[in-house]
């Protein structure tokens, strides 16, 4: 049964490759975003992951903001994309991943090569420009995935883009729970776990609910990036019910 589900996921990925190669070049951005949302929903459904959107923002408008979230799994990108298609900032080495790297690039992922200051500056300026153009940019400030039940420190650098573009930060908390509402360890993608091992754990779980919790906007006007990053971490921790040290 799990092998059959894995085969269905693989076929869905291949359909995504074909869509990016033969359809994306001929359609406008709004249609591409709609296809990304639908494809993400379908991928999650094949993985038996149901998305539950929870608004704890007080009804704030989220059209023009830098989007951030905690990072649990490779699933996080598709959970967020099922809400709204975003351009994610990711580590440059992901670009070299077979199939997944190419798909990510076609979906508008922005790859960041750490340690190369000229490249970082160029990408940073691009982020500011895209935010000013009201594009949805998202990143995971922890910089890597972490086990559920905790929250790693937030790197502050990319928060500067929101400050310069004069847009707020829109934080999300992402949790994966079982039928009883308890954190499900099958979603954790940490340590030396491979993608195949993660996929197997998710399929064997028999069904997860991904809770995508929208939290109140964080203003950035006149702020310092470290203060914004710390405030964002406190807000996300509150959404997750995590007590910070």
Can you describe this structure?
The chain has 245 residues and is α/β, with parallel strands linked by helices. The protein has one domain: 3-Layer(aba) Sandwich (Cobalt-precorrin-4 Transmethylase, domain 1). 43% of the residues lie in helices and 16% in strands. The protein contains eight helices and seven strands. It has a seven-stranded mixed β-sheet, with helices on both faces. Helix 2 (29-46) packs across helix 3 (75-83) and helix 5 crosses helix 6 (159-165). It is globular. The model has no long low-confidence stretch (mean pLDDT 86).
Quickly list its features.
alpha/beta; Cobalt-precorrin-4 Transmethylase, domain 1; 7-stranded mixed beta sheet; acyltransferase activity
Please describe the topology of this protein:
Blueprint: H1 2-22, H2 29-46, E1 49-55, E2 66-69, H3 75-83, E3 87-91, H4 100-106, E4 110-112, H5 117-132, E5 137-139, H6 159-165, E6 169-177, H7 195-205, E7 208-214, H8 225-240
Helix pairs in contact: 1-2, 2-3, 5-6
Pathway: Lipid metabolism
Protein name: Lysophospholipid acyltransferase family protein
Organism: Undibacterium danionis
């Amino acid at each position: 049964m799990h092998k059959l589900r894995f085969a269905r996921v693989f076929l869905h990925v291949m359909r995504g490759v074909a869509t990016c190669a033969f359809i994306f070049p001929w359609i406008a951005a709004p249609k591409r975003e709609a296809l990304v949302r639908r494809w993400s929903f379908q991928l999650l459904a094949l993985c038996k992951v149901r998305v539950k959107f929870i608004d704890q923002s007080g009804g704030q408008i989220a059209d023009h903001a830098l989007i951030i979230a905690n990072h649990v799994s490779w699933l996080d990108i598709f959970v967020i994309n099922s809400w709204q298609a975003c351009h994610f900032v990711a580590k440059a080495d992901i670009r070299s991943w077979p199939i997944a790297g190419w798909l990510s690039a076609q979906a508008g992922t922005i790859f960041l090569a750490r340690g190369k200051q000229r490249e970082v500056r160029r990408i940073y300026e691009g982020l500011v420009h895209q935010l000013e153009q009201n594009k949805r940019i998202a990143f995971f400030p922890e910089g890597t995935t972490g086990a559920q039940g905790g929250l790693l420190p937030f790197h502050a650098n990319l928060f500067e883009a929101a400050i310069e573009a004069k847009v707020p930060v829109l934080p999300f908390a992402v949790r994966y729970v079982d039928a009883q509402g308890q954190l499900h360890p099958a979603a954790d993608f940490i340590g030396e776990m491979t993608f195949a091992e993660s996929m197997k754990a998710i399929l064997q779980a028999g069904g997860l609910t991904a809770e995508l919790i929208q939290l109140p906007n964080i203003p950035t006007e006149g702020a310092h990036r470290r203060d914004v990053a710390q405030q964002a971490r406190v807000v996300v921790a509150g959404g997750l019910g995590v007590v910070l040290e």
